Amino acid sequence: MPLYHTLGAIPPKRHTQFRKPDGTLYAEELVSTEGFSSLYSLVYHAYPPTIVKTLGEPYSVEPKIAREKHLKHTSLIGFNIQPEDDYLQSRKPVLVNSDLHISLAAPRKSMIDYFYKNSQADEVVFIHQGSGVLKTGFGNIKFVYGDYLVIPRGTIYQMEFDTPDNRLFIVESFSPIRPPKRYRNQYGQLMEHSPYCERDIKRPADLETHDEKGDFKILIKKQGLIYPYVYGTHPFDFIGWDGFHYPWALSIHDFEPITGRLHQPPPVHQTFEGNNFVICSFVPRKFDYHPLSIPAPYNHSNVDSDEVLYYVDGDFMSRKSVVKGQITLHPGGIPHGPHPGSVEKSIGKESTDELAVMIDPFRPLMLTEDAIKIEDENYYKSWQM
Ligand SMILES: [Fe+2]
């Protein structure tokens, strides 16, 4: 996050002696991204973060592709993904390309006996259902319905859930997730026209230093494999840290919609960006107020982009029937638009309570075996009059 933050104790000067009460040194670690060219933080550990005890056999979690090429409007019934106890095992990639993987998950249990680190991708975990705490060495972030948790690659974390009824929509991004550049000034500050500002960003709090030695299992994901590591020190042994690289959160409910006299185009809903894709939030808002306005969207051709909508809550004015957790994929190359009747129905309406997350990837998405299992096979015919 392009916003400085610090928690715990740090020395006045970087790269200088910083000692424990017993006179020994804390272990400094630079956590940097894009080489040494982008956001970074300096972390002070009770012990060096390098004490590997054992290394298990890696195993594959690579998505199994069922439909590599296609040109069909597709819908997935996301809540048909079955709940599973374990957080990692519950994550089912459904739509993937070389820029991002989109997964659905319904984990029942908190992570207790292991930690997880995604070393290949930033993660955006959208909390559709459930609440709890994202625990990291940088501090904790409490989450509730509607939060986007943004977890930069390399962050070791645990998810602690309050109840077993959790539904997550997860984006793994192989490039850094960031607020759109056009929302920020030359110093990185979010500008007046941005739909959210720094006050809306939830940063880590309640740093807990676990000064512990033992056996600590960390499952590390890299290049589609999970590497089971056992480290000799607790990964959350941060005494303190400072910098710009850390997990953060934004609630979809804090995204302030931009409206106009006429229908506003999708970029006004943009929330985050990665390389070759954007993430947008459709939130409750007043409709267009030109006397002859048509609130429903126009038909549109995504000439060079697929379009994924994940329906969260409320009535969706352009669709005939959608359910919570449903995904639609409208591939680039053919037009799509409002369902029959929804244009007329939208005229005169003053507001919408729809809530949805949209992802526009600029390279085609492939469908996985898990996606095919929850597909509504007749969706492509749903525009028939
Ligand atoms: Fe669309």
From TrEMBL:
Query: Can the keyword Transferase be found in this entry's annotation?
Result: no
Going by the entry's taxonomy, the superkingdom of the source organism is recorded as Bacteria
What's one GO MF term for it?
A: homogentisate 1,2-dioxygenase activity
Give the matching InterPro entries: HgmA_N, Homogentis_dOase, RmlC_Cupin_sf
Under Pfam families, the record lists:
HgmA_N (PF20510)
**Which EC number(s) are documented for this chain?**
1.13.11.5
The chain positions of domain Homogentisate 1,2-dioxygenase N-terminal read 96-249
Keywords, ordered alphabetically: Dioxygenase, Iron, Metal-binding, Oxidoreductase
PANTHER family per record: HOMOGENTISATE 1,2-DIOXYGENASE
Any idea what this protein is called?
Homogentisate 1,2-dioxygenase
Whose protein is this, by species?
Mucilaginibacter pocheonensis
